[in-house]
Write a structure and sequence with these properties.
Layout (H helix, E strand, L loop, with lengths): L1 H13 L9 H14 L3 H16 L1 H5 L8
Helix pairs in contact: 2-3
Length: about 70
């Protein structure tokens, strides 16, 4: 059991988490987009962040695939 906890902890540390509160209208749009594309809301948000950062800092986005969220 301890091994599973150690593996999970390493995974959590390598993938930082954030909590975001959306207005109801925005959340509905995100949920609709996720459902239409058969992905999670988290995936939609990560994709939007990737595009936002690439638009604002194109050189950063090109740096070793920094924005990939596979």
């Amino acid at each position: 059991m301890a091994i599973k906890r150690q593996r999970r902890k390493a995974t959590i540390e390598s993938r930082p988490r954030a909590s975001v509160t959306f207005p109801p209208g925005q959340y509905k749009i995100l949920a609709d987009l996720a459902r239409q594309n058969k992905v999670s809301i988290a995936w939609v948000v990560r994709d939007a962040v990737d595009k936002y950062v690439a638009d604002k800092w194109p050189l950063f986005a090109a740096h070793e695939g920094a924005l990939r969220h596979d």
